[in-house]
């Protein structure tokens, strides 16, 4: 009897490389990890990583977490993040990724909306106690049964995963490896509000394939990921690209330029994946002489409307691939030509690589009747973005929609027929990877006191940055903390124009 073909999972891809080259380098920590988290940097082979994954997976099973339940993860770009994600999948769990800049209110909402059974975090990141944030959020999420952390000085009641890694693996659980099963839940902000976005394994892998094939990443390459991993784009550009290439993954906690350059040279990285504006700045600084081992650069655009007006890429030894990000809805990539300028993106199906005839279809780009950009394809979670049911029509079936409306304003260029993305979704602000409704600014400013100002200013690196002014900055920080803003945002409040 023939067995039906099943698509691979992320753990399947890891184990394929493990069987082929168990002693090859797999994971490389940031060189400044001791400053960021208090841990010393680790370098792990595939065999060492597998032992750690087995130990963490066994702990999740022994803790009583049922198969297909949700485990929330709020971790920086370190080895612990990769190990935890793969261990959760090996135990048959679904990973919900929680951005580091989230407010307490968003953490609690995400845990409750997903009915997460456990949360994993780091004791401190950049001096902020994420262990305390996790404990407070878990206290308001009735589904949470286990709070786990890496690092020292964990609060009472939080299990130490460092201790788990120090002992031999225990109980295992048989899990069917099928790429159609749920792998992750990320979170988006749309005009309708806060939205969980679930994805199966094949969707995450499709995102990684779209990047790696368009950029022509060779098998066995050492990949430097300098993009926050707590999103679909973050997982696809780090975990999926690494597993598809079968090489080594070097991680960088954004951003320290000198440390990043040192890491690239020390690890002889061939691929750099980073926010596009950062990549362009590096490209202007004699990239060939300073980082000679680079052969591919992938720039991720959180503000895709800025691509067309960006500067030319002037490092021909390491071609740049522009990756357009549309929140958690999806992405597509386009490798620049010899002139270093962004290439025209045409509507319709697009392959990976884009210019190669007969290549596999990575997705489809379309212009919606509302004059916005739509996406469809294997990586696009159409059901998660289904429009709300009209009031009074609950018994009437709505016509099916086979694409996601990203909300980005777009038009067709008449001479070339290319898609031109002109503006981000209305009413949504983005500070780095942190997205929120612009109406939230009014509430935050009201709490700062009389004469205070809080606004979002355009920023080429992060999309927007929060800038504020208050008569009493100490009281302003207290007010923002009361609203649940993450301390990394609150502590940066300045008299006039510093980012919050």
UniProtKB/TrEMBL annotation:
<dbReference type="InterPro" id="IPR042099">
    <property type="entry name" value="ANL_N_sf"/>
</dbReference>
<protein>
    <submittedName>
        <fullName>Acyl-CoA synthetase (AMP-forming)/AMP-acid ligase II</fullName>
    </submittedName>
</protein>
<dbReference type="InterPro" id="IPR000873">
    <property type="entry name" value="AMP-dep_synth/lig_dom"/>
</dbReference>
<comment type="similarity">
    <text>Belongs to the ATP-dependent AMP-binding enzyme family.</text>
</comment>
<keyword id="KW-0436">Ligase</keyword>
<feature type="domain" description="AMP-dependent synthetase/ligase">
    <location>
        <begin position="14"/>
        <end position="299"/>
    </location>
</feature>
<dbReference type="GO" id="GO:0031956">
    <property type="term" value="F:medium-chain fatty acid-CoA ligase activity"/>
</dbReference>
<dbReference type="GO" id="GO:0006631">
    <property type="term" value="P:fatty acid metabolic process"/>
</dbReference>
<dbReference type="Pfam" id="PF00501">
    <property type="entry name" value="AMP-binding"/>
</dbReference>
């Amino acid at each position: 009897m023939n067995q039906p073909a099943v698509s691979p999972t992320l753990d399947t891809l890891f184990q394929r490389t493990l069987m082929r080259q168990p002693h090859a380098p797999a994971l490389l920590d940031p060189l400044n990890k001791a400053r960021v988290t208090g841990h010393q940097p680790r370098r792990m082979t595939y065999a060492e990583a597998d032992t750690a994954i087995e130990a963490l997976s066994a702990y999740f099973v022994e803790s009583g977490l049922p198969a297909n339940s949700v485990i929330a993860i709020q971790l920086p770009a370190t080895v612990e993040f990769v190990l935890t994600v793969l261990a959760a999948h090996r135990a048959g769990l679904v990973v919900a990724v929680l951005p580091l800049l989230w407010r307490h209110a968003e953490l609690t909402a995400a845990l409750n909306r997903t009915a997460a059974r456990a949360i994993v975090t780091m004791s401190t990141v950049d001096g902020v106690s994420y262990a305390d944030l996790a404990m407070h959020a878990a206290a308001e999420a009735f589904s949470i049964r286990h709070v786990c952390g890496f690092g020292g000085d964990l609060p009472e009641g939080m299990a130490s995963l460092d201790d788990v890694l120090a002992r031999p693996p225990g109980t295992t659980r048989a899990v069917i490896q099928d790429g159609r099963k749920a792998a992750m839940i990320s979170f988006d902000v749309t005009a309708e509000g806060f939205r969980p976005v679930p994805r199966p394994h094949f969707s995450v892998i499709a995102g990684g394939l779209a990047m790696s094939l368009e950029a022509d990443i060779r098998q066995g390459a050492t990949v430097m990921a300098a993009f926050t991993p707590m999103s679909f784009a973050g997982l696809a550009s780090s975990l999926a690209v690494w597993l598809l290439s079968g090489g080594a993954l070097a991680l960088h906690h954004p951003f320290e330029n000198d440390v990043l350059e040192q890491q690239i040279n020390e690890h002889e990285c061939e691929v750099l994946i980073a926010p596009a504006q950062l990549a362009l700045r590096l490209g202007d600084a004699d990239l060939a002489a300073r980082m000679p081992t680079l052969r591919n650069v992938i720039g991720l655009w959180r503000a895709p409307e800025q691509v067309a007006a960006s500067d030319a890429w002037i490092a021909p030894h390491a071609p740049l691939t522009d990756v357009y990000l549309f929140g958690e809805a999806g992405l597509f990539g386009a490798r620049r030509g010899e002139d270093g300028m962004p290439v025209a993106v045409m509507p319709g199906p697009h392959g990976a690589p884009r210019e190669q005839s007969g290549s596999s279809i990575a997705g489809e780009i379309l212009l919606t009747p509302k004059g916005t950009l739509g996406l469809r394809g294997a990586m696009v979670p159409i059901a998660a973005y289904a429009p709300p049911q009209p009031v009074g029509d609950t018994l009437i079936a709505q016509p099916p929609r086979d694409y996601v409306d990203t909300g980005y304003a777009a038009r067709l260029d008449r001479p070339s027929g290319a898609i031109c993305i002109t503006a981000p979704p209305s009413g949504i602000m983005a500070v780095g990877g942190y997205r929120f409704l612009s109406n939230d600014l009014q509430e935050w400013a009201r709490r700062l006191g009389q004469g205070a100002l809080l606004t979002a200013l355009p920023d080429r690196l992060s999309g927007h940055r929060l800038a504020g002014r208050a008569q009493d900055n100490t009281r302003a920080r207290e007010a923002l903390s009361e609203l649940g803003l993450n301390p990394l945002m609150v502590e940066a409040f300045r008299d006039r124009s510093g980012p919050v």
